[in-house]
Structure to design on (698 residues):
DNA sequence: TTTTAGCACTCTGGGGAATGGAGTGCTAAA
DNA sequence: TTTAGCACTCCATTCCCCAGAGTGCTAAAA
C-alpha cells in the first residue's frame, strides 16, 4: 500500500494532536483540523490504512488512533517542521549561557540544569572523554601557614587544585624541586602506574617529601580515575510528573531511578550526528522502551565531548526540544569547543 | 488530663506502627502489640484520651488512629529509642566516605548523594558560609602553548583553578609580576570592588596585561559571587515516590519542585543543634507542612559549614534517619572540620 | 474508680451493574 | 473514490450495595 500525500498529512495531524493532548484522535477531529475538505468516513478509511501499515495504533477497538513508534519515526524524519527559535528564545538561552560558566566540568553539570529548565523535560548530562586522561603538569604552591596547594593540569585541559595539609612540614623552598619530581615521574600515565612509581620512590626521597608526594599523587590519581568513570548528572526529574503517561507512580519511579542510578546505560549519540532522537522501543534499555530520548553532543576543550540528553514520553515535542537542544549544543561548542574563543558577550540584566 | 505511663506506651506503639505501615491503627492491634495485658475497650478509652489531648488523630470516625504532629513531636522528644548504628552500618558509611572525597565543595554535593542513598529518602545539601568569602591568593602559571593557569585561593580555603586563553600573548616571564599585581590589588575584597579596581588599573598597565587581568579578575569575582549565592544540591528525589503518601502525583510533584527550585527556603538547623527534626507544620514553608525534615550540619574547613537535610513523610523513620545522619555529620566533621586531620583510612575493595 | 463485655452505629473501600458517549467498520449508494 | 448511514464495541463514569473494621457508649464487673 502506498503512503500517499494525504495519508502523510493525516498522520502529521494525528501525531501533533497527540503530542499536544495525549488523547487518542478520532476521525471527526481530523476532519476539523483539515478544515472540512473531506468527510469523516474517508478519514476513517485512511486511518484504517495507516493502522494496517503500522504507523498508528488503537488503544482499543472503539477509541481513536495514537501514533506508533514507527509513526513517530516517520514524523520525525519527514513530516516534522524543523523549528527555528525565535529571537526571544535565543536571547534567553544566550543570557543563561553567558551568565556564569566557569571551569569545563562545571559546564557539564550546568548544561543539564539549563537544558532541563529550558525544555521542560528531565535531562541527563555526561562527559564523554576521548581516551583516558592523564596528568600533564604538576605545580605545588606554598601558602603561609604551611599548607600546600597542589595544582594538577590534566591531558584533557582540565585544571584542578586543592589545598593539602602535609603531615610533616616541607619548606616552601623545596616545592619547586618537588614539582619537578612530579612532572618528570607522574605525567602521562594512568592511576595504577602512578601508584607503582610512587612505591619506587619511597626510599629514594626523604620521609616528609614522600608523605607530601603521596598526597599529591593520590589526588592526581583520583582525578584521573574520575575522568575514566563516567559521571552522570540528572536534572529536573520532577518534570516527568507533569505528563499523564507518568501519573502511574510506579512508571515514574522506575524511570527516575533508572536515570539517577544507571549511569552509563543512558544513550549517547552515534558519531557525527549532532542530535539524535530515540523513540520508544528504539532505545536499547528496557527502562526507556516506553519513553523517548533526544540527545545532543557538544565540544568542550580539545579532548572532550559533553552530552546532554532529554528524556520524556514518546509523544514528547520532538520539534521544539530538538530545536532548543541543538541550539544549546551549538552555543556550547562555540563557547568551549575551540581554544581562543570567548563566550558571546551579552548584557547582564 | 494526665499523660500516664500507659498512655505513652500506647502512643509509642501507634507511632511506630504507623511509621512502619502507613495504616491507621485500631484498638485491637494495639492490644496485640501489648501482648494482651489489657482489653481492647480499655485501649479504646486511652486512645480517646490521647486523641482529645491532641496526640492522635482519626482520619474519619470509624478508622483507627494515626499520630498527629504533636504526637510525633512527643515521640521524637521522649519516646523514641535513640538508635546506634551497628558495626556493619558504620563500616559501610566509612567505606562510602573514604572512597573518594576531593575538594571541599565536592564534599557538599557528594554528602547529599551519599546520605540519600544511605537513608533512602530524598536529601538536599547546602554550603553555609560564615561571612562572604574573598580571594586570598592569586597565582598565574604559564603552560607551553601560551595558555595560562589561574589559581585562586579563597578566604574559605577553597582553591580553584582554571585554564585561560589570553586574547593577546603574555610572556611567561611576566606572570610572576602579574601575580604580584593581583595579590596586592585584588585580595580581601568583594566582587564589585574587584571590578572597580580593575577599571582603575585599565590605563596603568599594558593592553595585553589588562586583558589577562580582566579574565582572571572576572573568574575570581565569579567564584566570590558563587559562594555568596547559596547553592543547593538535591538528590534522590525519586525516593519520594516509594511512599504511599506521595502516590498522589501532584503532592509529589509539588514537593520535588520545591526542593529543586526554591533554593534557600529549605530549613537549616538552629545554631548549636547537631541534628534538628522538623515535623509537618513545624516547617515554616507551606510546601513542607505535610512532610518532615531532618537536617544536620557538619564542619568543613574553618570558615564553612555544610548542611544535609533529609525530607520525607511525617511518618518518616526518625530514629533510624537521625542516627545515620548524625553519624554522617560527625564523620564528615572529623574528616574535613579541622586542618591537619586526615580521612580515616579504609581499605578500598 | 477502673476495667471489661456487649452492642449499635458510622464510615470506607471494593465489587458489580447500568448507562452514555465516542468512535469504529462495513455496506450501499453517489 | 468518496460519502452517508447504521449497527456495534468498548470504555469511563456513576450509582448502589455490602462487608469489614473500628468506634463510642452503657452497664456490669473488679
Amino acid at each position: 500500500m502506498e503512503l500517499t500525500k494525504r495519508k502523510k498529512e493525516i498522520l502529521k495531524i494525528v501525531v501533533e494532536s497527540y503530542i499536544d493532548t495525549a488523547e487518542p484522535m478520532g476521525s471527526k477531529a481530523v476532519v476539523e483540523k483539515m478544515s472540512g475538505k473531506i468527510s469523516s468516513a474517508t478519514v476513517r478509511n485512511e486511518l484504517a490504512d495507516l493502522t494496517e501499515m503500522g504507523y498508528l495504533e488503537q488503544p482499543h477497538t472503539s477509541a481513536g488512533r495514537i501514533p506508533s513508534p514507527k509513526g513517530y519515526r516517520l514524523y520525525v524524519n519527514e513530516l516534522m517542521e524543523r523549528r527555528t527559535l525565535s529571537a526571544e528564545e535565543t536571547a534567553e538561552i544566550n543570557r543563561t549561557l553567558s551568565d556564569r560558566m566557569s571551569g569545563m566540568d562545571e559546564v557539564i553539570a550546568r548544561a543539564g540544569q539549563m537544558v532541563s529548565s529550558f525544555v521542560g523535560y528531565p535531562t541527563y548530562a555526561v562527559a564523554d572523554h576521548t581516551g583516558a586522561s592523564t596528568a600533564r603538569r604538576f605545580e605545588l604552591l606554598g601558602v603561609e601557614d604551611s599548607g600546600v596547594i597542589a595544582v594538577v593540569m590534566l591531558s584533557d585541559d582540565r585544571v584542578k587544585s586543592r589545598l593539602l595539609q602535609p603531615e610533616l612540614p616541607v619548606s616552601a623552598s623545596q616545592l619547586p624541586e618537588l614539582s619537578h619530581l612530579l612532572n618528570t615521574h607522574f605525567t602521562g600515565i594512568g592511576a595504577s602506574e602512578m601508584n607503582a612509581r610512587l612505591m619506587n620512590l619511597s626510599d629514594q626521597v626523604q620521609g616528609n617529601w614522600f608523605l607530601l608526594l603521596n598526597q599529591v599523587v593520590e589526588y592526581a590519581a583520583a582525578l584521573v580515575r574520575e575522568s575514566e568513570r563516567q559521571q552522570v548528572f540528572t536534572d529536573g526529574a520532577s518534570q516527568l510528573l507533569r505528563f499523564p503517561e507518568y501519573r502511574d507512580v510506579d512508571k515514574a519511579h522506575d524511570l527516575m531511578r533508572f536515570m539517577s542510578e544507571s549511569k552509563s546505560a543512558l544513550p549517547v549519540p552515534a558519531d557525527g550526528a549532532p542530535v539524535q532522537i530515540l523513540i520508544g522501543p528504539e532505545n536499547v534499555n528496557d527502562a526507556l522502551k516506553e519513553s523517548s530520548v533526544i540527545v545532543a553532543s557538544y565540544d568542550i576543550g580539545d579532548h572532550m565531548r559533553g552530552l546532554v540528553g532529554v528524556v520524556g514520553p514518546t509523544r514528547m515535542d520532538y520539534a521544539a526540544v530538538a530545536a532548543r537542544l541543538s541550539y544549546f549544543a551549538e552555543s556550547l561548542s562555540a563557547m568551549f569547543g575551540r581554544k581562543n574563543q570567548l563566550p558571546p558577550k551579552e548584557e547582564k540584566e
About this structure: DSSP finds eleven helices and ten strands in chain A.
